[in-house]
Amino acid sequence: MSLRLRTISREEHLAFIQSRPSASHMQVPAWADVKAEWRSESLGWFDESGVQVGAGLVLYRQLPKVKRYLAYLPEGPVIDWFDRDLDGWLQPMLAHLKDRGAFSVKMGPPVVVRRWDATTLKAAIAGGQAKRLRDVEPDWYEPRAFEVADRLRKAGWLQGEDGGAGFGDVQPRYVFQVPLADRSLDDVQRGFNQLWRRNIKKAEKSGVEVVQGGFDDLEVFHRLYVVTAARDRFTPRPLAYFQRMWKSLAAEDPNRMRLYIAYHEGEPLAATTMLAVGEHVWYSYGASADHKREVKPSNAIQWRMMRDAYALGATLYDLRGISDTLQEDDHLFGLIQFKLGTGGQAAEYLGEWDFPLNKLLHKALDLYMSRR
């Protein structure tokens, strides 16, 4: 099949995304408005009949002092990754991006390689034999994913390093997901471990109330988020970032972004943002207070989001990034420990890949990023 690639309008881009069961929230046209510091472009792939068969959101970041760009397709593009002629999709894209002044291209194929059930991982942790996710035999794997990786390497793409923890990529390679398809909400809750079920009941008995907030409530979320940033030692995004995210995504789809706040005796104790594209729903950002943790607002808010995701017709509730560590003394272990309680699955994606269009500038960028 001969494919043609061209710049498309936001309307064409959105229509294609809406025709799919799901796509990453970072591949919708409105994400370009969220990332306002990047220049953006929507790309479309068309077959010989002129029918659109793929789409990609490209974000361009300019190098200081020169008109050369890093072209980034986060968790994209949205194409047929299992096509044996993958070059037929990617070569036109590389040629186009080079013409646009790109010196390097980074993309994140939305292809799951392996999945591990919660029961499998709990047994591995209890046994103490496995240090990393990859040390554990997966419950499911996608043979075609390895073929995709081979095709990319042969075409000159370089796989990003995962840093040994799954966080070397810009987007997480390892995530935790709760399947919702063909399950009732009772089935989902029965999949929780005893601690999760007990904590949800404790929140209810304590009078924790989870409400869906609006744009004006982002200030409440952000105050808790700043507390969380200080506790977990990361640099918080400004309130304006979340306000821009809300306005941009809500303008595209009123259900694209939601805000939830857990109150106890009128005091906000936890807050989260949720993103939805088609049948895929993500827990995006979370924040919580340092006190009253005993009333379990975080468990209550997650259960509310799962129920609402189910009501939206989601087939997957995505708790996003985890480390690949299974060692209880590792400071990153808490990420997977909390999420394991949902009874879901750990999933490994193919990771991010780079194509140096100008090897000298690409190497300079790598050096700069490593020093950061």
From TrEMBL:
- Which PROSITE patterns does this one have? FEMABX
* Record-stated family: Belongs to the FemABX family.
Would I find Membrane among this entry's keywords?
no
Output this protein's name. Peptidoglycan bridge formation glycyltransferase FemX
Q: Which organism is it from?
A: Kitasatospora arboriphila
Key words, A-Z: Acyltransferase, Cell shape, Cell wall biogenesis/degradation, Peptidoglycan synthesis, Transferase
What's a Pfam family in this record? FemAB
Domain of life the protein comes from: Bacteria
